Amino acid sequence: MLRSQKLTYSYGDTFSLKPVSLRLNHGEITGIIGHSGSGKSTLLHLLAGLKEPASGQILLNGEPILTPSKKLVPGHEKIKLVTQQNTLFPHISIAENIAYELRYYEKGYQKTRVNALARALNLRPLLGKLPRELSGGEIQRVMIARALADEPLVLLLDEPMANLDRIHKKKIMLSLAEVVRQEQIACAMVTHDIYDAFGMAGRLVIMDRGRILQNATSEDIYFRPRNRYVAELTGEVNEWEAGHFFRPEAVVFSPEGPWEGTVRAVVFQGSHYDIVLDTANGPVSARSEERLENGKRYTFGIRSFIHFD
Ligand code: ADP
Ligand code: MG
């Protein structure tokens, strides 16, 4: 288990990370979400032992890790950070790039491990290619495979799926979750896509301006967001009256009402329609299984509200 205790950091006067205490459990992915500039990348670099905290400490299975000031080469061999930066060696094949991490092991083991990772992350057709022959998304998958090669205890991913299309992403994420579970890796993944986070992560950490605003399960975050920032970051919300918020899917169209609204937009989403209603309390985003008619009036109820502390 990786733990940070009251970790702080600052870039002069421009930004500071407020005391961050956080736990990453083995076999589980923790999603980290927050607007750009909220300190997510800084936090991952600290957790990887690549930045010197101003105060606080990081413990790996109870042992403090050495921060850069105490090491010749910053970083920890069992904690791997993958960013969007391509750091593959350009002149050797993908298989050789991954195997490089295993250079101190015997050849037979290197081969077995590279093949196992290639199978798990769907990289087999790429093994003989050079990095420049790969797409951005493929590079990212190789970087993840390479980080996993020497069986890290902790895997930190900074927006690893930003270059992947939806369908590919879903596949890769499922295989990643499988590896994380099987090899009992403590994993944190920064993402700006809330659906990635919901799909992957048991636990979500919401960051804002260098602080952790909420740290809870996906369901808790979605249904019981601590404040408006968290609610808006994790999906659409409507404000009905001051302090009364609800998600679009809480709207139930029914003859009993008690409210009514005029349909202003209908957008087909495959599994449902996104609806915008004009109501006495302003515009409302709703959802409907059936196609509603633009311009027509409908009555509706609201099944549940969100209340902030
Ligand atoms: P995120 O990954 O959530 O977008 P970062 O951790 O990259 O956020 O950055 C947090 C804040 O720190 C931002 O306001 C950013 O501009 C600032 N920052 C990041 N790196 C540096 C740096 N090397 N020097 C000064 N400020 C930085
Ligand atoms: Mg970042």
Model description:
The chain is α+β, with helices and mostly antiparallel strands. Helices cover 26% and strands 33% of the residues. The protein has helices at 40-47, 94-100, 107-120, 136-149, 166-182, 194-200, 218-223, 228-233, and strands at 2-11, 15-24, 28-33, 55-60, 63-64, 79-82, 154-158, 186-190, 203-208, 211-217, 238-241, 244-246, 251-253, 259-268, 273-279, 282-288, 297-302. The strands form four sheets. It has a six-stranded mixed beta sheet, sandwiched between helices. A hairpin with a 2-residue loop joins strand 15 and strand 16 (282-288). Helix 2 (94-100) runs parallel beside helix 4. The site of adenosine-5'-diphosphate has 11 residues, from helix 1.
Task: Based on the model shown, name its key terms.
309 residues, binds adenosine-5'-diphosphate, five-stranded antiparallel beta sheet, six-stranded mixed beta sheet, 8 helices, binds magnesium ion, alpha+beta
Count of individual helical segments: 8
What is the average of the pLDDT values? 93
Unreliable runs: none
**What does the main sheet amount to?**
6 strands, mixed
What small molecules does this complex bind? adenosine-5'-diphosphate, magnesium ion
Helix-strand string:
EEEHEEEHHHEHEHEEHHEEEEEEE
Strand order within the widest sheet?
6-7-8-3-9-10
By secondary-structure content and strand pairing, the structural class works out as: alpha+beta
Q: Using DSSP, what is the number of strands? A: 17
What general outline do the C-alpha atoms trace? globular
- Terminal residue distance: 30 Å
% residues in beta strands: 25-35%
Determine the fraction of residues in helical runs and give it as a percent range.
25-40%
Rg, rounded, reads 23 Å
